[in-house]
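Handover notes (outgoing to incoming on-call)

Open items:
1. YvrJ family protein: sequence verified, structure written out, both below. Nothing else pending on this one.
2. Nothing else urgent.
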Amino acid sequence: MQEWMQWIQELGFPIFVSFYLMHRVEGKLVAIHDALITMKTP
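YvrJ family protein structure tokens:
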């Protein structure tokens, strides 16, 4: 936990939040992509 706090202090809170949100959205985009691929396949 101490390493995370040091990382947040060095990079800044907005950058940390941006990386966190990109990480969360990536999984959802992969799921949407897979769903679209399966719908396309006859």
